[in-house]
Amino acid sequence: MNFNKLYNSKQFYSAVLFSIILITTIGCSENGEIQKLPGRNYELVWADEFDGVKNTLPDATKWVFDLGNNNGWGNNEYEVYTNKPENVSMDGKSNLAITATKEPTTPYATYYSGRIITKGLFAQSYGRFEARIKLPYGPGIWPAFWLLGTTIDSLDADNKKIGWPQCGEIDIMEMNGSKTNIINGTVHGPGYSGGTSITKGFGLTNSRYDIDFHIFAIEWGKDYIDFFVDNTLYQRITPANVTGEWVFNDQPFYILLNMAVGGNYVTGPTDQTVFPQTMLVDYVRVYKEVN
Amino acid sequence: MLITSCQRNIDELPYATNYDTTPELFMDGFSAGLDYSAWGKVTNFSLDYNEKYSGTASMKFEVPNVNDPFGTTAGGVFQVASARDLTSYNVLSFWAKASEPDTLSTLGFGNSVVKGVEDATYKVTLNNLIVTTAWTKYYIPIPDASKLKHEKGMFYYWVDPRKGGKGFTFWIDELKFEYLGTIAHTIPGDIYAGKDQILNNVESGDYKLPDLTATFNLPSGINQSITLSSGYLTLASSNPSVASASKPGTYSVLRAGSTLITAKLGDKSVKGSLLVNSIGAPQLPSVSAPTPAEASANVISLYSDTYKNSNIDSYEPFWTWSGGGFTTDFVFYNLSGNNYLRYSNYNDTYNQKKVLVAISFESTPIDASAMTHIHLDVWVPALSPNLTNKPTLSLEDWSANYGGSNTMGVYNHSTALPTNQWVSLDIPLSSFSGLASKAHLVHLVFDNFPTVIYVDNIYFHK
């Protein structure tokens, strides 16, 4: 891997070549606490900058579509995922646009949206996963940038599917659109999934996530996952924090980007939810730690 | 050597002001300089030291029952005598709860009353806010705070009983202006229904754009609409020599020609525009109306140079049709020593809403029992933005005890009035259908007239 690549990326990655002392506020506090993190060196191994022509679909060498409703994707979600440009495409301004639309069907409205994943094309264990995203908003809107363990479809020693949550899930960012200034970072695993997942929110002071881009990232190594918003570490999860087996060591995970409409996390959209809603993703980048 | 980085755009210089920037209105007591006047039931407002969101006190408002003899609404305005600079805030926020879940009809800011005259230049209204029995924070966004460099109207409310006319109580606490980065996605509503309105034959003068709505997204991700005065709009004219932006929300037509008026709310373009085709100076009657020939003894005059006029309260009391909100402009005109009345209203044409004009003599009702006709001379300019020209006249009688058994008589003129000439209308009072009595007449109402009319010699006769 070419180290020069680090410096050619369009957003200079400030966590590179750390002599890291980040001076930022933590959470919503304004007391100017100083974060001291261990130095970590990363090199870029995978990225999509979404520089394609407007209305074109995502790069098929990097992403595949999840389609349909799949019985609510396990969360009673309302949306139907499509592979149409109106739901998933390049915006022509160097962003991926995932757009949720509402069709006035009877007796209930139909919601269309997008979900793209790197399953079968790219997966990695450990490293830094980051995306720069401008989020959508509104009741029932549930955007996410997240990882699933590739063992989800594997068979265990008894020839039974390992499945979820044993495969592990890392939600680098998910948001309830009726809380426009808060995102959550979360892990799910055996004994700590769904409502008992290990999670923490990060709120913006006097701003919201749908008016500007923010960088959402994890730095993941053996026995730890650190969660960042805009290079502020707001949560570290270790085996001591989870109420079950730690399934995140030496397991490759693949990437998912989606916007759900409705579902257990957010409840349904209301008449006051503004459609269409768009999540803009400037880039997704994955780094490996080097020393 | 270029030092561009040290140059400043003059528009970016801070606004020099000594105006008070205090954001608080009521926390546990009133901020300095805040005055209160009540509307409706005047005792509706008090302080409450038991119910409060935080601190030691809240504002308590008692909405009366619909049949309360002391007033059937709770209303009031909080204003400051010395204007405040609100340019650094973007929302008026407060916490509120009610004795039962109910609807607060009207809340807002940006209007004040000084010596009986309302200034609503920067009025903002939030309608039909639903409140519950739990303290909840509510928001009334400022459409464009840069306009509020010196504002006196801090807060007002006007709440009717809703559920079966049953009164209720609501409380407000922590009422203050603030800047919230969590209010986002301003979407201005349309003007002229989002269309490009063409307005022909516009006379020189000042014209105010209609009020509009705007939508803001609240921290909870839901949209909230408010109604705002057109004073918040920044107007642009494609041909400033024909018309230019003048007072807030107003453009001044200066001379004949065409110009396109467009509007922005902050940096957002407003959908809809107005193409003004102006004739410049107004068309005026070139001659006086015919001099009436009736004997004075046979006449009761409302307006004439020939006869002694009855005691008239107003030649334009600025009534509006319900939901209309627009009134005419009115002036006395003098032409070669002869006076006449000039009524004009361009808002009528803009909004396609009915506007009425009334001559009111409530203080001294007229007994026209012995009279047989009403006469008036009307001059309609041929160049008018609106030639809806089959007028309706109405007479209202209030009976002996002022309002005991009112009747309204209506006369519809069946043909369009000729233009650019004095037309004498002599209408039998028996043609005012529905008028049960003419012994206590109090109003003469003009309706369905064109945008501009000149009127003279209005009198009853026999």
CATH architect. name of chain A: Sandwich
Characterize the main sheet of chain A. 10 strands, mixed
Number of strands of chain B: 34
Total of domains of chain B? 3
Bin the helical content of chain A.
under 10%
Explained architecture:
The complex is a heterodimer of chains A (291) and B (462). By secondary structure, chain A is mostly beta strands. Chain A has a single domain, classed as Jelly Rolls, CATH 2.60.120.200. Chain A has one helix and 19 strands. In chain A, the strands form three sheets. In chain A, strands 3, 5, 6, 7, 8, 10, 15, 16, 17 and 19 form a ten-stranded mixed sheet that branches. The longest helix of chain A has 4 residues. The N terminus of chain A is likely disordered. Chain B folds into three domains: 162 residues, Galactose-binding lectin (Jelly Rolls), CATH 2.60.120; 96 residues, Immunoglobulin-like; 166 residues, Jelly Rolls, CATH 2.60.120.430. The termini of chain B are far apart. The N terminus of chain B is likely disordered. Chains A and B meet through loops of A and loops of B.
Task: Map the helices and strands.
The complex is a heterodimer of chains A (291) and B (462).
Chain A: H1 5-8, E1 21-23, E2 34-36, E3 41-48, E4 64-65, E5 80-81, E6 88-90, E7 96-103, E8 110-113, E9 115-117, E10 127-134, E11 141-149, E12 169-174, E13 182-188, E14 198-203, E15 214-221, E16 224-229, E17 232-237, E18 253-261, E19 277-290
Parallel strand pairs in A: 5-8
Antiparallel strand pairs in A: 1-2, 3-19, 4-9, 6-7, 7-8, 7-19, 9-18, 10-15, 10-19, 11-12, 11-18, 12-13, 13-14, 15-16, 16-17
Chain B: E1 24-26, E2 34-40, E3 45-48, E4 58-63, E5 74-84, E6 91-98, E7 102-109, E8 112-114, E9 117-119, E10 124-131, E11 136-141, E12 151-159, E13 168-178, E14 184-188, E15 196-203, E16 205-208, E17 212-217, E18 223-228, E19 233-237, E20 243-245, E21 250-253, E22 257-265, E23 268-269, E24 273-280, E25 299-303, E26 329-335, E27 338-344, H1 346-351, E28 357-360, E29 373-379, E30 392-397, E31 407-412, E32 422-428, E33 441-447, E34 452-461
Parallel strand pairs in B: 15-24
Antiparallel strand pairs in B: 1-13, 2-5, 3-4, 4-13, 5-12, 6-11, 6-13, 7-10, 7-12, 8-9, 10-18, 14-17, 16-21, 17-18, 19-22, 20-21, 22-23, 22-24, 25-34, 26-27, 27-34, 28-33, 29-32, 29-34, 30-31, 30-33
